[in-house]
Amino acid sequence: MKAKDLRLGNLVTIDNEQHWSELKGKAMVVVGLEKIKQSSFSYPLSNYWISIEDEGGTEYFQSNEFIKPISITMEWIRKLGFVFETLNEDSTPTQRKYRKAVIGSDSIPFKIEFDTYNESFTLDFVERKLINYNYVHELQNLYNLHTRLELSESIEVDAF
């Protein structure tokens, strides 16, 4: 994963079979980013050390090539505090596929449209283009960019 795509507070996971294989698939919070001063022959794709914490506050250090994004799902959107629109019996197949979700008050709502078939979300912003996003950290970064607020789990960290 590219370190430039990460901010402190982003949710990610580790995928390293040699070290901490038991943490694969577990949501962790980015708490630090440090540029590697000298590249390693062992990890040629790494240029940053990423500090991450589990829900108990234990800190781990891992090179960026072993840090992986968490795929966005309806469950994750709910965990981050979004509320999905209510569907009724008369909802069309399109309304069932593209679920609208919102977070925030009426004065500053932040709305997304979640594609339940492809597990991606879209925003219509700035250039008025729809862009598909697939990861939790992308939603966190976009939310912060537009609201200057942090988006973090509203329930305990869980495996996904």
What would you note in describing this structure?
This protein is α+β, with helices and mostly antiparallel strands and 160 residues long. It folds into two domains: 3-69, SH3 type barrels; 74-147, no CATH class. It is 14% helix and 32% strand. It has three helices and ten strands. The protein has helices at residues 74-79, 93-97, 136-147; strands at residues 11-14, 28-35, 48-53, 59-63, 67-69, 83-84, 98-103, 110-115, 120-125, 129-133. The strands form two sheets. A five-stranded antiparallel sheet has the order 4-3-2-1-5. A five-stranded antiparallel sheet has the order 6-7-8-9-10. A hairpin with a 4-residue loop joins β8 (110-115) and β9 (120-125). The longest helix has 12 residues, at 136-147. The radius of gyration is 17 Å and the shape is elongated. The protein starts with 10 loop residues before the first strand and ends in a 13-residue tail after the last helix. Mean pLDDT is 83; it is low at 155-160.
User: What Rg is obtained from the alpha carbons, in whole angstroms?
Assistant: 17 Å
Strand content: 25-35%
Shape: elongated
Helix content: 10-25%
What's the story with the biggest beta sheet?
Answer: 5 strands, antiparallel
The span between the termini is 18 Å
Tally the helices.
3
**What's the SSE pattern?**
EEEEEHEHEEEEH
Label the structural class.
Answer: alpha+beta
Strand order of the largest sheet: 4-3-2-1-5
Could you say how many structural domains there are in total? 2
- Poorly predicted runs: 155-160
Calculate the mean pLDDT score and round it.
Answer: 83
* Secondary structure: number of strands: 10
